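User: What would this chain look like folded?
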Amino acid sequence: MSVNRIQSDPSVVQAVPSISFVAAPVSEGDLCGTIDYSINGSALFTAELVAAESIDTQSSELSVSTVATPAPEVNPPEQKGWFSSLPGWLPYVLGALVLAAAGAVVYFTVIRKYIKARKRRSR
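Assistant: Here's the prediction, encoded as structure tokens.
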């Protein structure tokens, strides 16, 4: 069966919930059962049913919603800047090069003049 057929007629997919005994208090995210999805008796997959919200007291109402949450993407797109896409070691190497260049500038401008001035005075 094609995906287009399922999208055009979602009633071909059977959803059979299997709810375990649930009693208050229930915390959001607690496992409450499973649901089996099938087409023409052929199992597609089984999913866990989790509590959508916390319940502190016993209620006479019990509701099951088979509305699916969006499935996570297999390979979600990465939204990174250009700097974070560099290899992990590269920022350290670039930082070391910047420090070395700054050290060379300081040496050739300040310290070297100071050393030459001391040599002239000592003569």
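The chain has two helices and three strands. If you want, I can go into more detail on any region.
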